[in-house]
Amino acid sequence: MSTSYVHLNVENKVGYIEFYNPPHNALPASLLAILTETIETAANDPSISVIVLQSGGDRTFCAGASFEELVAISNPEQGTAFFEGFANVINALRNCSKLTIGRVQGKAVGGGVGLAAATDYCMATTHSDIKLSELTIGIGPFVIEPAVTRKIGSSAMTQLSLEASTFFSAQWAHDKGLYMKICSSKESLDAEVKQFAEQLCSYNPEALMQLKKTIWDGTAHWAELLKKRAAISGRLVLSEFTKSQLKNRSK
């Protein structure tokens, strides 16, 4: 595969949303916008009862923000708009009336960890290590922090953020509550996700919708909070430290 995409496929009342951007599923603003729209479309589709969020490829679930776009940011407005892309996806998953399942087949970095945390129930493989590397380039995991902290707690979030050069194992992520189940292979993960999603589809839709509201109770302020966090990242990405780090890594 060499072409970026976001696809929605419906099978047995399950809406499978898959995104892909080679080589490591780092997301540019354009794909973030399409991903947000696709989640909203699936949420309003009466033929879909449960949504699965997944990525294409084998090695990486999502490497976070596209470095190419970060390098190209030239003013705070552009920076804020870019990071709002991740905020919009997280809020779309939060606001979605249907339960969402994260299917993480490989490593998740930065915003990728945020996407996994924003799903209601996340499964992964043993290869799905996680890292929040934002501090290494002079910014921080500000936009995704509420979603990640909500899943793993403030202490684990602090460790993950400050040990920014370290990959934490899938087992660590499971122990902290990010992953609900770990599978030995992508094939077994797909089987588990399919079985679980279709089982959920057999339940009372009204009960599922009310449970979704209960799960996310107390997060209505995120619509404004994540925009403010995006502005912080949008400003920091213009710092000399960050520009230097991005330049060195893009060589």
Using brief descriptors, characterize the structure shown.
11 helices, 2-enoyl-CoA Hydratase, Chain A, domain 1, single chain, 251 residues, 50% helix
Can you describe what's shown?
With 251 residues, this protein is an alpha/beta fold. The protein has a single domain, classed as 2-enoyl-CoA Hydratase, Chain A, domain 1, CATH 3.90.226. 50% of the residues lie in helices and 17% in strands. It is built from eleven helices and nine strands. The chain has a six-stranded mixed β-sheet with strand order 1-2-3-5-7-9, sandwiched between helices. Strands 4-6-8 form a three-stranded parallel β-sheet. α3 packs parallel to α4 and α4 (111-118) crosses α5. The mean pLDDT is 96.
SSE pattern, N- to C-terminal: EEHEEHHEEHEEHHHEHHHH
CATH architectural group: Alpha-Beta Complex
What is the CATH topology descriptor? 2-enoyl-CoA Hydratase, Chain A, domain 1
Major sheet: 6 strands, mixed
Structural class: alpha/beta
What's the total helix number? 11
Low-confidence stretches: none
The CATH H-level superfamily is: 2-enoyl-CoA Hydratase, Chain A, domain 1
Rg over CA atoms, rounded to whole Å, is 17 Å
